[in-house]
Design a protein that fits this description.
This protein is mainly alpha-helical. The protein has 15 helices and 7 strands. The strands form 3 sheets. Strands 4-5-6 form a 3-stranded antiparallel β-sheet. A two-stranded antiparallel sheet has the order 1-3. Helix 7 packs parallel to helix 10.
Length: 502
């Protein structure tokens, strides 16, 4: 089966397979029969494009894209891109960066953080340029680009689990973090002995409260419509990061702070595991690569003004700001607390332990409040790929736009599912290094390199071919080592598997 796509100055068409450039005004691609299984019904193509036939109706792929939350609106701008990137790129994982420095020391901590930052910025550049590899063809979803690069079966095998974890799993972790932070904020406001102290909720109720607020905000229709929510999340994320490291400097170091690494943590399997876990913390602090293509999909694009230009401007500005948040958090956090930094909670827990008594309740409460708002905002953008996939299943089975009541029901279903998982597995954060090594690290640091080789086909043994092959292979090796280290750490320290007891 072939598809003929007319290429004009202002036309863009989302297709499931790679479209090689040809000199003619019409471009023809071959769609293997196996790839059609993704869409129910029969797909037919002619000179006017492709249509999906089913339930007595014909829909074009372009029309289908206009129904889905990620690509429903393509009126985004560089500013909306910046808001989404900052909201998704700065998270509570960054609070653990001083813990990594405590295991690596000053020199190696800064070196590893700098290398990881440049590496992930390079893979973002690859994804931005792979979003529209040829004029007229856009890939606005990571799974679809993976299928194009690696084939139907391997592409799904490699991409579906990481994307599901980074969407649904991130929402579960945000519920856990947001619910626990709400409880901490309540305890700050209502200290022991006050009237409201007896009105505290249980852990499950705090999780439920966070989920309900997130789902109310989550009724916004599409990715472009949550730009203001992402702006709020970006402001609050920058705010709490900056406040924590600035206050840590102003309050000074506690007595007895040391920067030396204990001898027991330097040698043997324990030392090897600590180093790899520290590298894992640094690599997992950079997140949001599963959303790069989706965010770029909200931008308009044509032959004169391709989306990659606006997207890359937004990426550069955003990651300068992200670097200004992450590097001070890591360096100042290690300077202020040294080896006294708690492994759980990082710099925020350390600040609360050492400076709670000489810092006003308003300031500490404001930090927790900003963290809660940041988690609520991040929930929206990380849930959007799941919303999009649920509506895709409905739209392709019914051959019509998802009605408002169905859209609401699907989002409530997803919210209920993430709430149930958060309640059932409140210790999921302890498994984050293990699952992150399997899902986050390959998707962020390795897969984009292999995708570039597969789709762009640079000259064998050339500079780009060698660079991407080397980085991709090194990323896979690091992923395996991080999985081994995380498993060893769990076997040594055990896991507090408090099922259904948040």
């Amino acid at each position: 089966m072939g598809e003929v796509v007319p290429i004009g100055d202002d036309s863009t068409q989302e297709l499931p397979l790679y479209l090689p450039p040809t000199p003619s005004p019409l471009q023809i691609i071959t769609i293997k029969s196996s790839s059609i299984r993704e869409m129910p019904g029969v797909i037919t193509c002619n000179s006017n494009g492709c249509t999906s036939q089913g339930s007595g109706q014909d829909i074009t792929l372009r029309e289908l894209e206009s129904w889905l939350p990620i690509t429903e609106s393509r009126n985004g701008s560089t500013f909306s891109v910046m808001f989404h990137l900052l909201c998704s790129g700065i998270g509570f994982q960054a609070l653990l960066l001083p813990v990594a420095f405590a295991a690596l020391g000053w020199a190696w901590g800064i070196i590893c953080l700098s290398i990881a930052f440049m590496w992930q910025l390079y893979t973002i550049w690859l994804l931005v340029n792979l979003h529209e590899p040829v004029p007229g063809t856009r890939y606005s979803r990571f799974v679809r680009l993976s299928i194009v690069a690696f084939g139907q079966k391997l592409g799904k095998l490699l991409a579906i689990f990481p994307v599901m974890y980074l969407s649904g799993g991130s929402c579960v972790l945000l519920i856990i973090t947001g619910g626990v932070t709400m409880e901490q904020l309540f305890k700050i406001i209502c200290e022991e002995g006050t009237i409201c102290e007896s009105m505290s909720l249980t852990g499950i109720k705090w999780f439920l409260l966070f989920t309900c607020i997130a789902l109310i905000i989550g009724q916004l229709p599409n990715l472009n419509s949550i730009a203001r929510v992402s702006l709020t999340g970006a402001i609050t994320a920058i705010g709490y990061c900056t406040m924590i490291w600035a206050l840590s400097i102003s309050k000074g170091r506690p007595n007895g702070v040391s920067y030396s690494i204990p001898d027991a943590a330097k040698t043997g399997m324990a030392g090897f595991s600590n180093i790899l876990n520290a590298i894992g913390i640094i690599m997992l602090a950079f997140r949001g690569h599963n959303l790069i293509l989706e965010i770029q999909g909200t931008l308009p694009s044509n032959s004169k003004h391709p989306s990659r230009k606006s997207m890359w401007r937004g990426v550069m500005v955003s990651y300068i700001i992200i670097a200004m948040c992450l590097f001070p958090l890591a360096i100042v956090g290690f300077w202020a607390y040294g080896n006294k930094i708690p492994a759980n909670g990082g710099i925020l827990t350390a600040f609360s332990q050492f400076h709670r008594h000489d810092t006003s309740k308003f300031v500490i409460g404001l930090i927790y409040l900003w963290l809660i708002i940041s988690c609520l905002s991040s929930y929206q953008i990380y849930a959007m790929p799941a919303f999009d996939n649920l509506e895709f299943i409905y739209a392709t089975s019914k051959n019509r736009r998802c009605p408002g009541w169905v859209r609401t029901g699907l989002r409530l279903f997803f919210g209920g599912l993430t709430f149930f998982i958060a309640v059932a597995f409140p210790f999921l954060g302890s498994l984050a290094p293990l699952i992150g090594g399997m899902a986050v690290v390959p998707l962020t640091f390795a897969y984009p390199c292999f995708m570039w080789i597969s789709i762009k086909r640079p000259r064998a043994n050339g500079a780009m071919w060698s660079l991407n092959l080397g980085l991709g292979c090194f990323g896979i090796v690091l992923s395996i080592l991080l999985i081994v280290a995380a498993a060893w750490n769990l076997a040594e320290k055990g896991l507090n598997a408090n099922f259904f007891r948040p």
